[in-house]
Amino acid sequence: MQKKSLYSYSLLDLRQFLEENDKSKFVADQIYNWIYRFYKFDPKDWLNVSQKIKDFITQECDLSLPKIIWNGKSTDGTRKFLLQMDDKTTVESVVIPAKNRLTLCLSSQVGCAIGCTFCHTGTMGLTRHLGAHEVVGQFLSVANWMIQEVSPDLKITNMVYMGQGEPLHNFENMKKATQVFMEDKGLAFGQRRITLSTSGLVPQIEKLNDFPPVNIAISLHAAHDDIRTELMPINKVYDLKRLFEAIKKIPLKAHRRITYEYLLIKDVNDRAQDIEALCTLINSRESKINLIPFNEYPDSKFRRPSDKVITWFQDQLYLKGYVCTVRATKGQDILAACGQLKSEYQKLNLWDQKKVIESESFIGAF
Question: I need a labelling partner for 123 at 20 to 30 A (CA). Which of 45, 87, 153, 183 fits?
Fold first, then answer.
């Protein structure tokens, strides 16, 4: 019988598990502290936990973490990690530095079933969902690596569920992982420091009342049904009308906005009529628009607009009263930018492999 991962337990779950096995439930708080505040994954290092409890946890729980088998560092400081799960499947996670914060982009699935035509991950298809322990394990493996290899003072301050996969397609596992991330006695991430991005899976959006309160980002990318369907096949089932009916049901606290991610693609959705359609769809008081210039990757049929067009598009939305930002492109030289993730070794041949291998950040083997 396969052991259950220790990292799949919320604090309440772990208390209950210990109590059901005639152990003090309050030891769960100590274990959570050692794992999530001090990154001590070996029970031998849990100094204030009895040997009896340590032996029990070792015997009953799986304490293994995803293995980092490759990492690359971009010229802008972004780091991409290739992590291998117990079944040898792999996913990618990305650490993105910015002023006053360090953001980790997490994957929710091995591959993705949504099949967006602009997305490198979409060419993989879906292999499987990640378990809650594998989502949490991504964080622990990468955060611990950064502390050990870069600086003991480094701290990941923000998380975005924008890596491989559709988070809401893996609803229950992402919900459990988020509960672990937000636990006060563990990592203690505040709800404003976690962002969930969805392509528009309407039935799951309607269930967000049952998800921990985090920032919500909608991958919109087009304001016309025909264009959105071309870019995102999910729009055939959940078109813009159904999507925005579901969005109206999302529970928003005071002074919170929904972020609409809009991928700007040359000659596809960067025209004046696209701006007018966006303004018809989106309420400026409850929304923020995040423009994402398309990140090109090998064999992609789409292209990035010019900087002049990107600036013009943003300015027009400003003039119409919208909060509108342009996402800085990070990690493009190592295919770590938005829409470029694809967990295959072969992709390393698509850019300057020799440069990657010779860099100080190369730690894995093919």
Answer: 87
Classify residue 210 by burial, with Cβ atoms within 10 Å: 0-12, 13-18, 19+.
exposed
Q: What is the pLDDT of residues 315-344, one digit of tens each?
A: 999 999 999 999 876 545 544 444 444 444
What domains appear along the chain, each with residue ranges and CATH number?
Answer: 4-62 (1.10.150.530), 67-358 (3.20.20.70)
Active site residue 338: yes
Check 92, 166, 183, 261 and give the catalytic one: 92
Summarised one tens digit per residue, pLDDT across range 248-265 is 988 887 668 999 999 999
- Give the integer Cα–Cα distance in Å for 136 and 93: 12
